[in-house]
Amino acid sequence: MGVSVSEAHAVDDELVEAFERLIPQLSRSNPPPSEHELDELVRSEASHLLVARDDNGTIVGSLTLVVFRIPTAVRAWIEDVVVDEAARGQGVGETLNREALRIAKEHGARTVDLTSRPSREAANRLYQRLGFEPRETNVYRYEL
User: Fold this and answer.
1) In terms of pTM, does the model score above 0.85?
2) Could you give the CA distance from residue 121 to residue 97 in angstroms, rounded to a whole number?
């Protein structure tokens, strides 16, 4: 399967429907974004919503890259990587990540961070194969 990746700059029914299909494959606890929420995402200067399409033009995956300035650097963070179950193992995740790394570099980031649950073994192997290295750090979350 060939795969192409592009950045979403507008929201249409196809994008909304793709996220209704993809997000439940990523998270059982978070609902798919609404059309309004997707619109906020694609219009944000800090966010880059990447979508992967197969040879038929069907959206088979997505990744969000966030690039932002802090006092010490330009930071880049990859979030919500999801590949449709039917397209896994066919290079979709790798293509999405490589494009995110290219965009991050283009925006001046020197590093790109992400997190991945240990149970996502295939994803973790992919990240390590791409050159991501585990960091010795604590990740904290504060529930609002």
Assistant:
1) yes
2) 16
